[in-house]
Amino acid sequence: MLKVKNVSAGYEHIPVLFDVSFEIQGGEVVAIVGSNGAGKTTILRTISGILKPMAGEIEFLGERIDNIPAHKIVEKGIAHVPEGRHVFGKMTILDNLLLGAYTLKSQEDIRSVLKEVYDIFPKLKDRENQKAETLSGGEQQMLAIARAMMSKPKLLLVDEMSLGLMPLLVDKVLSILKAISERGVTVLLVEQKVQEALEIADRGYVLQTGRVIAEGTGKALLASERVKRAYLGM
Amino acid sequence: MVETKKIFSQKQVLSWMCILIAVLPLAIPNMNFHHVMIMFVIFAALGQSWNIITGFAGQTSFGHAAFFGIGAYTSSVLFWKYMVSPWVGMLLGALIAMGVAVIVSYPCFQLKGHYFAIATLAIGEIIQQIFVSWEYVEGATGISLPILPEGFLQLQFHQSKLPYFYIAYVLFVLVIVVAYGIEHSKMGYYLKAIRESQEAGEAIGINPTRYKLFAMMISSFMTAIFGSLYAQYILYIDPFMVFSLPLSMKIVLLTVLGGLGTLYGPIIGAAILIPLSEYTRILFGGTGKGIDLIIFGLLVVLVACYQPKGMIGLFGGWARKGQRTGGEKGE
User: Fold this and answer.
1) Most exposed residue of A29, A118, A121, A226, measured as fewest CB within 10 angstroms of its CB?
2) Lowest mean pLDDT among B106-120, B144-158, B240-254, B284-298
3) What is the ipTM of this complex?
4) B chain contacts of residue A98, beta-carbon cutoff 8 Å
5) Dihedral, CA of residue A158, residue A164, residue A165 and residue A167, to nearest 10
6) 8 Å CB contact of B203 and A48
7) CATH code of the domain covering residue A66
8) Residue B139 to residues B64, B130, B131, B142, B240: CA-CA distances in angstroms?
9) What is the pTM of this model?
10) Could A71 and B206 be called an inter-chain contact, meaning their C-beta atoms sit closer than 8 Å?
11) Across the interface, which of B199, B204, B331 has its CB nearest the CB of A102?
12) pLDDT tens digit sequence for A105-122
């Protein structure tokens, strides 16, 4: 579904990613894990078009997307849940969600996708007229994911959703991502919480200082000596 | 804003405000007062126009005097040199201002936050300098508009100020209608989304540059119209009047004082600042120069400390208090 081929990317001529390649099949949950500064967020920003790669190609459903602007990429079916949530705080939850449906043209589509999203996040429905800034961190994270779901994505990119959430909530959000993938949406998540992310992922990639250093199924990676030593402190 | 909606709709409150503004000059037939009212509607409309790009879209412009001046100069030059009706000049000036806004803001929109604000400030100053040294438009001497017999077509009235007031008033109401339309349209939501977080806006598929550009075009167009009107009312312009930084700042301050990003804000802010500056000028003459800004500065500091939402926050606060005693359950 998504092919990232030999991508290098960075900020203002300082490269962050070196020759990164990976692939995602439709319906998978894939986790990219790694420590601070490994380039995880940069990968997502490059896929969603906020950042242009310096070299390499990105293909989505057989079409090159690395040279089109971010807002066009959303139309192709990739939704990005940015790091730090970025909900529109002064707007109601409903308005946040409706804005997420920006790429949908028909009212009917919007209504049906809203219903589906409320199915996944029943709590948001109860509070639809509440301002987003009044939600707790975990709820805002849910809202950010729900808002991304409103564009009916085929691929959902989730950046560091565990940031600032208590462990119990991290598990909850992860289980929601699992539920989303069961509805047929492919999920690519980027996480610092290596163990939790690899537990729910079908496959994972380990990123270190801008390079992919290991890949495999979530279980295999968790079992590997290297990952255990470097990230899990075992 | 949201709070008052619960008692009266926003439309109702705005309509009552507009009706009140329309009848005030008739109720108080005093020349000075009419002058103050004209300045008030002009500045309220300027604040409203500025509010669209800064209050809604979150792009702080400190250079709106540039558009105001372009409007004033276009109609004045055409009128003075070629006897073109100021109405035509007004429309042309607005279109030119819009063109300049597009050329100037497109690159500036690559800048974010403070840098955008600084760029607009610099552009305002550059345009002023151009006009100061441009001989064709009389440079720093300015343009005295020829006095013609009264008439709607030449937009000059000598017996009474009321025609000026009602022309300004009609345009002011149009600006409010436009701003209201934007706030309640999809575009209003897109602009607010960009204001809250441009990146998240982009992540859900909004093209931020396009909508910021639309907002800037509308804002500059309306600002220039009031520039032409102002020139036609004062009948004299020079670059230090119409392109001045204090003018840009006045627009900014009155909107911030009233309430940034709300439709009431510029009206409330202008209703405080304009009478204050006009009456201190009438009262103290030249010796009192700047006293209005001293008082106004103090007000802005107080508002910034105690009511960051602007004066409009006061009304919201009262409405909320009323609700709470009404026995609303807390979250």
Assistant:
1) A226
2) B284-298
3) 0.74
4) 189
5) 110
6) yes
7) 3.40.50.300
8) 20, 8, 6, 6, 10
9) 0.82
10) yes
11) B204
12) 889 999 999 999 999 999
